[in-house]
Design brief:
Blueprint lengths: L26 E7 L10 E6 L5 E5 L5 E5 L4 E9 L2 E9 L5 E6 L8 H22 L3 H14 L4 H13 L3 H14 L4 H13 L3 H19 L4 H13 L3 H14 L4 H13 L3 H14 L6 H10 L3
Parallel strand pairs: 1-7
Antiparallel strand pairs: 1-4, 2-3, 2-5, 5-6
Length: 311
């Protein structure tokens, strides 16, 4: 199960050093640093008068620096934006004296004090929700994650964890809705498809489970250059439960190829071979299980099989 926290705030330090202007004209200059502590290239800098209809716009260079010359004297708001990050600083611009500004773009740089406090409270709530999830207090986790998504409706990890918690409580309709909400926000979430596959498998909706598992495996392959061992194994289990042993065998073999240490894939491959009457292949798969996990939960059972199966 994934247990992600809402990201915190990164602190930065900025130092500026500029020479004095050569001419008596207004100059606004500054530097923009990003969350990683490095200069931000290509940030948009908007300089807008607060008492008149005047506005100028420029961009930061590769060193994160910007320069704007020739604005009339007055009060301005200088806004720096880059992707989803934003910061606004006031500036008094006057002729003959440079205005120097430093910007620190962080997840909280564009927030009010009230919004920063609300973000901190949300982080505490997320931490408590994850701890409840880990401790098996599913009702408490559901309550807290529900509180979070009411305020942050794009929290895909919250919806994912809601799906897992509801699945554990066998509240399948709620779990399905939660996993589908993840896909509504992020259609390429392989984890959500895996959650749906497990959910449908538990309800013996094998056709739906196979479709969801296949989609999870497809997404895992597009990201990692090959199928996810877990997704392939899950697809094999779904086919196994549907009585499609030959098809399940193919998936278990693929899972082992993706991760030779996935012991349960070896075990299930052995069981599939037994049901197909392929005894030598079954022995090899069971031996693979013991190699991958000599003291695993199925070790005693596998050792019994190996004693009983003909050489």
């Amino acid at each position: 199960m994934r247990t992600y926290l809402i990201r915190g705030v990164l602190a930065l330090a900025v130092a500026l050093a500029f020479s004095a202007p050569a001419a008596a004209q207004s100059i606004v200059r500054g530097k923009v640093m990003g969350p990683d502590g490095k200069p931000v290239e290509g940030a948009t800098v908007s300089i807008e008068a607060t008492e008149a209809n005047r506005k100028a716009e420029t961009k930061t260079n590769r060193n994160g620096e910007f320069l704007q010359v020739g604005l009339p004297s007055g009060r301005y708001n200088v806004t720096v934006t880059k992707d989803t990050l934003k910061q606004v600083l006031p500036a008094n611009i006057s002729q003959g004296r440079p205005t120097e500004l430093s910007f620190q773009l962080t997840p909280s740089s564009g927030l009010t004090q009230e919004e920063i406090k609300a973000q901190a409270a949300m982080q505490v709530l997320a931490k408590d929700a994850v701890e409840a999830m880990r401790a098996g207090r599913d009702d408490e986790a559901i309550q807290k994650f529900t509180e979070i998504v009411a305020k942050v409706p794009t929290c895909t990890d919250c919806y994912y964890n809601l799906g897992v918690a509801y699945s554990k409580k066998m509240q399948y309709n709620e779990a399905e809705a939660a996993f589908k909400k993840v896909l509504e926000i992020n259609p390429n979430s392989g984890d959500a498809y895996t959650g749906l596959a497990n959910l449908y498998n538990a309800q013996k909706k094998f056709d739906l489970a196979q479709q969801a598992s296949a989609k999870a495996a497809e997404l895992a392959g597009s990201v990692g250059g090959g199928g996810s061992a877990e997704a392939l194994y899950n697809q094999g289990v779904i086919l196994w439960n549907a009585g499609k042993f030959a098809d399940a065998k193919v998936q278990f073999e693929a899972a082992i190829k993706a991760d030779p240490k996935l012991a349960m894939a070896h075990y299930q491959l052995g069981m599939a071979n037994l049901n197909l009457g392929q005894i030598p292949e079954a022995r090899k798969a069971f031996e693979g299980y013991l190699t991958a996990d000599p003291n695993g939960a199925k070790a005693a059972e596998v050792q019994t099989f190996l004693k009983q199966l003909p050489q």
